[in-house]
Amino acid sequence: MLPKRTCAALAVLAVTAGTLAGAGAASAGQPNGGDRGRNAVAFERTATYPVFQNRPAGEDASAQTVAEISATSEDGRTLVYTDAAARRIGFLDISDTGRPRGLGTLSLAALGNAEDEPTSVSVVGQYVLVVVNTSASYTRPSGRLDVISLRTRQRVASHDLGGQPDSIAISKDQRYAAIAIENERDEEATPAGGEEGDLPQAPAGFVQIVDIKGSSPARWTTRAVPLTAPDGSALPALVAAGITEPTDPEPEYVSVNGRGQLAVTLQENNGVVMIDLASGRLTKAFTAGSADIEGIDTADDGVIDQTGSLTGVPREPDALGWIDDRYLATADEGDWKGGTRGWTVFDSRTGKAVWDAGNSFERLAARHGLLDDSRSEKKGTEPEGLAIGTYDGVRYAFVGSERSNFVAVYDISRPTRPVFRQVLPTTNGPEGLLPIPSRGLLAVSSEEDDADAGVRASVSLFRLGRGTPSYPSLVSASDSSGTGAPIGWGALGALSAVPGRSDELYTVTDAAYATTRILTVRTDRKPAVITRELTVKDAAGKPVGYDAEGIHARPQGGFWLAVEGRSGAGNQLVRLDRDGVTQQVVPLPSEIAAGLGSQGFEGVTATTGGDGREIVWAALQREAGTDPAGVARLGRYDVRAGTWSWYGYRLGTTTTPGDWLGLSEITVVGDRLAVIERDKLNGPAARVKRIYTVDLPTSAAPKGALTVLPKTLAHDVLPDLRATEGWTQEKLEGLTVGGDGHVYAVTDNDGLDDSTGETVFLDLGTTRKVLGRG
Prior knowledge:
The protein is mostly beta strands. Helices cover about 5% and strands about 40% of the residues.
């Protein structure tokens, strides 16, 4: 058995917050706001629409196409998104929230230059307002505002903006549009006396106000609000506020409150300015300040180590939003010098931070298996997007993590005391967060598109309703440190029942992490909870990193791991004692290893007879080079005799170029072996995610040609994966029958490498229902 924890460690799933002098602390609570009951209000994902499906006729499906910022028509049924990669805007019909429908695109490059790209979009009445970057270079920034008829998709007006635009916001009375003219810095340029990428870099940015009320778009007028003096020197207000480089403000994101006050983030300058829209007068400027962050992972070392700290980090906010007419919130992504891995609430009257997320946002990622260790030395989760929306009288803040692919939802009914409610999973790089309260919806548009990995940019829809949300299906409890830090996890490629326990399973991390850990999962909770962790050690008792693709918990104590090598010779069975220390290593026979590349052992299971004879079964993912095409091997290892014998398993076929089918898991179910057979496709392209069974041989395989065991389809898991309404995960890799008689499966998120990061943990039902066995 694994070392026991206190009852509190199993029950308390606290989100520990950092503190800020004079500010409130992030509220504690269970994952996704705790158990609020079946009638609790929560957001549930209803659809994930890959925007490459909305491409123009004849365009290559692998061509890069993204969704960054979005807006909707006034009735909330037509969504418009920017696609900077393809120089266009796209239109979706979201009338049916479960089946978004592509309505085509409009090329903005065709309205100007081939390199023109949209940076933001909004909708006013019958018009779509698109801000377009037309800059020839960093030193010659330019841009325009295109006004598009929502009905005809024809451009009805265009206005010169005098610089490179970033974001746009519309006042609540629809009298004004405000546009941040960033004139962004060149990260490869070196200003006089500075270092590469430093500020200042002329020309300075400013804000454009567009007067839009009561006239046709062609008659709209613009008013520039400079953020520097006419001679290029700094404004005294920005100097007094402590703005980093006030001669180069670089406004980033804009938001308007109900009183016509415009708030603008100066991300690289770690500040916020406020402008009265009616007069165009700058009314306030304040620094976003800095924060100390403790209890986070700060090293890119393949280990989720939440004991690191950062001191005096500038917040450098990106998106911001007004909570009400007094308080505003910022997503503190950071840029070149900062990033506090959370978000902050400011009092606009004083410019002081009144609440800070501390380490709680980063710990949400760790608790949900979404912490990307490769970003730990940089800016961590990088909260980039932020939006505010009021649903049924309750005000919510939505904060998007660019690097961990989630949106955190908070109840901000009390602006100075946000309460965490739930995490929403997204595809890669969620940037545009769009509340649609009139329809009870939230739309999330994602900017990362990787056709090679099969993970595409998308628009996801979430609907507010009553009931327990299906995500997350797996979270972690606090670790043993006593600090409230959650057990960090990810890359789960195997499952095993815990002998003698009806409500626990084991899983194991793979080569995505430098040190292998065996995790205990409690299945009697919704979501299931990782409650304990055990570090695997080598024979000398030192932590070791195995590419563990299979795990079997031995009734007599300890574990078998199926370890996949980078080459055939690296494949081995490893036996551990109950403390996780390596006791035995069984190499793959050399004649088999010689025919393998990087795809070897993928699963392990075992039986122990009445005479104590232990037989270990292991699955190779694909055929060895010396074997018949399409026939993978199931290995039978007799522990007492120390001998291998091999049976064959015939894989299915695929017609998709570049695809292949292979095995991902093996487990004993009575007198049968159950295996996972899957393709390497994900998203809408996924086709094969299946559980097959074969008879469990009672003796060693005969010598000579492989005896192929006839297989029977037991369960198609693809509908279960698609039922999440998210991005269908590629790596269905873990399978076992628990002590409660239920069949469990889990997907491997690869530690967020070439993956959305979402882990799907499935209770597929009883063994009789799923596998036809009692």
